[in-house]
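In response to reviewer comment 3 from the previous cycle, which asked for concrete evidence that the modeling workflow produces usable outputs, we include below a single protein chain processed end to end. The sequence was submitted unchanged, and the resulting structure tokens are shown without manual editing.
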Amino acid sequence: MLRHTILPILLLIFCTTVAQGQLLSDAELKKKPVFTSIEEAAKSPEEVYRMKLKIKADSLPDELFQFTNLQELVVARCKLSTLNTRIGELTQLQRLDVSANHLVALPESLCQLRNLKELIINRNIIAALPDGIGMMESLEYIDAWSNPLYVLPESIAALRGVLKEIDLHQVELRDEELEAMEKLLPETKIGYTSTCDCHGTRDK
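The workflow returned the following structure tokens.
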């Protein structure tokens, strides 16, 4: 009787694992093909690990979220104004590049990406990272240069020893702003062009 109970459970676990796939190493991921069309990728959604899309819309289309094995997503220079709140459904993502868009904010659902290692958001208009970013326990690198990002959320301190670098070049940081960041992340390399006395060029 016990055997008849255990076998279906094991089979369910196995099928779920296969359906979700597994995280690939950087070397393994680079060997996977890069899909440039949602329509083409939809022919074999379970085999889609990498996508580089040119989207003609304000946000990511809902059709994108069928690719549950997706581990690298590049949607740069697409004029996106918002990031679809469903982004948190792509739990296998290790690298997300939304650079050079028109984003002014990132949704809190982004923090559900516990496997994300690289977050590329440079050349947007993002003034704040999500409050729950400290939950992104695999995050090693944030590329945020040329954003009006002067303050980091307190929760990011949970990433001490994990987050290796934040690129904030071309961001006019004040001395006290840089010091506050360094206090939150004393082991993280914070790249910046220079600190400034910029009280006259932006609001306090």
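Residues 24-191 form a domain with the Leucine-rich repeat, LRR (right-handed beta-alpha superhelix) fold (CATH 3.80.10.10). We consider this sufficient to address the reviewer's concern, and the full set will be provided in the supplementary archive.
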